[in-house]
Structures are given as C-alpha cells and as structure tokens.
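Please annotate this fold before class:
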Amino acid sequence: MMPKSVLHVVAVTGVLSVVLGLGACSVPGAGSAGASNDGSSSSSSGSSSYEAELKQALESASSDFERGVLERAVKAGRISESDYREANEKYRQCMVAKGDDVEFDTDQSTGLMQEHMNTDDDYDSSKANADSMECAKGTNLQIRDLYERMVQNPSNADEIELVVGCLKRRKLVPESFTKQDYLTEMGKADGSSKLDTSSDVFSQCLANPGK
C-alpha cells in the first residue's frame, strides 16, 4: 500500500488568523464537534461573527459553485456542512483527473475533512502543490478553511486568547499568564521558552483549545 502524506497547500484568502507557533496551525479554535448539515442551528451571535469574512469570500469567488455556496452562507450566517463536503469532493475530483491520488478522511472528533495524498517513488511534490492550487480555485479555496474556522471557533474569538485559556485549564501556565506572555515565550529561541511546547497537552491546546 502506498504511503499517505498530508497535503493541504490551499492558499487562504485573507481570513487566516495569526500563527500560534509550532508551525502553521491555522485553526485552533473552540466549539462543538462538527456542524449541522444545513447550518440552520447556528445562534445569531455565531452567525454574525463571520459576516465580514463570508462577504469577503463571496467577493473573491471565482466560480458559479463558489458563489452559490457563499451566497447561501451569507444568508444563513455560516457555510453548511453539505456545501463544505461538496466543495472538497469537487477539489478531489479535479486532483484525481490530474493524476494526483488524493483522498479525504473525516476526523470523528470534529467532523472536519483531512486531506491525504497516496504517494509512490514517482511522487512530484512541486507538481502536486501546483495542481492543488489550480484545483482549489473555484472549488474549495474560498470555502474549506473558512468553514473549518467556523466549526472550531464559532464565536470568531481571538485564537491566542483561546489557546492561553486552554493552557490555564490544563495547568501548563499560571492563572496570571496573558496573551502577551504567550507571544513573548513563543518568540524565544528553541529551548529557552518556559512553555513546554513539546508536550502532548500543549499540542492539544493548539489543535483544539476549546477542550
């Protein structure tokens, strides 16, 4: 069986949050596991929190499919799970047509789709990245990352504050620890930070600080 490598090189359109350290962890947010199929269960506060991002994504849509998804999302206040999955499937079909053996697995704890590519000795990462960028346009480019942010951080809260709160709950930092303390520690050279960045608990707080 060919090995799997994670592939998620889709460019994000101005709605990415700050990088929290330990690589490009894009969406360490709070929230429930998964979203409703039609998005109708979102509260009004959760809906309004992403209004600007949804409208910005709509303005950047490059296909009728994307525009349809985002027009519905603007009205509903969120992207629906069914549209998210269809967008990823359209992307996958495009990749397969280009000879890239891409598949998606669903994370059972969050309901989010994780992209993998089956590779062999002939795997060309430059080609795969270029294909991914091309296939994302008009399919999931304006949809995927925004949907995943909405699921994991429905209130669109400050993501560093969420991580700091998680670190406090998990007793990795004192109650007096602040967002600025986090930024200071993460800016230090490897090995000099007071934060135990190599621990599983720290990684869990980055991945899902709402837990």
